[in-house]
Structure prediction request, 320 residues.
Amino acid sequence: MFEIVFLGTSASAPSIHRGLPAQVILAGEHRFLVDCGEGTQRQILRSGVGFKRLNRILLTHSHLDHILGLGGLISTFVHWESMDEIEIYGGKATLDRVQALLYGVVLDYDRIPIRLHLVDIQPGLLLDAKDFTVTAFPVTHRGSGNFGYIFQEKSRRPFLADKAAELGVPAGPERSQLVRGEAITLADGRMITPDMVLGEVIPGMKLVHIGDIGRLDNIHNYVADADALVIEATFLHGDADTARDFGHITAQQAATLALETGVKTLLLTHVSRRYRERDIIEEARRVFPNTYVARDLDHYTIRRDQPVVKQMAQAQEDET
Prediction:
């Protein structure tokens, strides 16, 4: 199961109801902050997520609306929170800007009580945890070093306890060995292989997060069959030319991507205050009905073979 809490859902500049881009993704005991627009630390507190274990920050690109909140957040971590180290992931251009912000304005090299790691990422695996992986992939936006992120739950085969009992496999370490894919030999000399007591493979869930993006034809393989796709919807189709000029996409284009790649649920963010939310929803749902436009502090739970569950939110159609 993955969860995503939207802290800020506006595009470029905040509005009355929307702050600048930031999300928290929860995966078991792990927590990831994706982007950190101005005002993020207050939204973390308002959301109830809190700062505990929020020590991995994934940045999609270098634009200020996605990183400017790092100054205040890292200052709070350094002075108030009991955290040993923080990892900030991003492309080189992004990290150059982050370093200038943090060490040129906020921090003193000689007086940092925590270890701060700026991780220059390349496309590929970033984290291999027990139950899931995090992978970075390149996206096209203005400038270089722009990335999206795939949170992929590992596939598993359920242990068939009834079948094991029928074969005489005792409860204990032997069953653990079989779950790990190791064959065992019983006291009577019979060999039991994992295939004899494990069910069919259950694919893991897939959550794809993309920040700003201006080209979609080169990311289909990364997005394919995602249980949930988070992506921008900065413009409506009537302004498609303007969207292209600024390296963005429209709600219709995001919905078409979801339809063409087998996405199950589409979560739109990076919403411009020039549009009404209901117009964005209508444009996207004409193409891909299972679309939501995220609001600040919305909390979505993503489970295998179940509809995405939305918490802490009013009905979308209530906002005009």
Q: What stands out?
A: Residues 92-106 form the longest helix (15 residues). The chain is about 25% helix and 25% strand. Confidence is low (pLDDT under 50) at residues 313-320.
